[in-house]
Amino acid sequence: MPATDALDAHGGLDLPPLFQAVRLRERGDAFAHACRIAQDAGAGALVHVGRFDLIEFAVVLEPEEPLVSARRAFFAGMAALADALALACPPEKPLAFGWPDAVLADGALVGGGRLGWPADCPEEDVPDWLVFGCTLVSERSDPSDPGRFAGSTSLVEEGFEVGPRIIGSFARHLMVHVDAWGERGFKPVADAYLARLPKENPADRRGIDGNGDLLIHGRATGGAARRAPLLPALLEPTWLDPTNGSVKL
Q: Quick one: which of 42, 173, 194, 219 is 20 to 30 A from 8 by CA?
């Protein structure tokens, strides 16, 4: 681990057992760094960046099933993220997902999640690691220009309590969802994610397929399932601005 990239210790995080914090300097990239160290660091390594304007972190996971289905760990990460944010937001503040990876506060983009895996791992093999990463806008330098930031917001603007507690809370909720998956199958994780994904039609029935695709059953399709694929968005996150590697503003 390059000394120029990482700072030691927990950086103020209160993490549950089995998690090990790695704090990066402000210019660091938590997701990229977690993917680099995942093979050696192992499950529970949680990389986070010390900066005031973003909450940025990534955690290493070690799945026990083939890559094609193991990618569903993304939904456990998203559900845990929403649970953590729900504890930090004002009462009655709408908190939702945009399929599949965007986090919306009161209908506006505030950040998102992403997933990484070994580039050389075949779909039918069990990957050595996965990395779930998250970036949230905590503050913006000049939120007074609504035209510049149309469709997006920040946690501070929406009244959230920001700070390292969100990361610690995420880690605890992630353990809950992973344990539920192991004990009762994937349905509890899917239900927790889908509960925050708005329906296009209230009568639609939805589920998560074995490869992570969203399945929508509605009258418009005569009961047949309409499929929204997961993989393309994981390869090109919908919320990510490729010009600066951060949340679209």
A: 173
**pLDDT tens sequence across 157-197:** 999 999 899 999 999 999 999 999 999 999 999 999 999 99
CB 110 within 8 A of CB 81: no
End-to-end Cα, the chain, rounded Å: 32
d(CA 108, CA 154): 9
Chain segment 45-59, per-residue pLDDT in tens: 999 998 889 999 999
Write the pLDDT tens digit of every residue in 76-120.
999 999 999 999 999 889 999 999 999 999 999 999 999 999 999
- CA–CA gap between residue 166 and residue 44 (Å, rounded): 16
Q: Based on the structure, what is the number of domains in the chain? A: 1
Closest listed residue to residue 26, CA positions, set 46, 10, 2, 7: 7
Q: Which domain holds residue 49?
A: 6-200
Kindly report the CATH number assigned to the domain that includes residue 166: 3.30.930.10
Residue 21 belongs to a domain: yes
In whole angstroms, give the CA distance from residue 236 to residue 216. 22
- The tokens of 195 are what? 């509960």
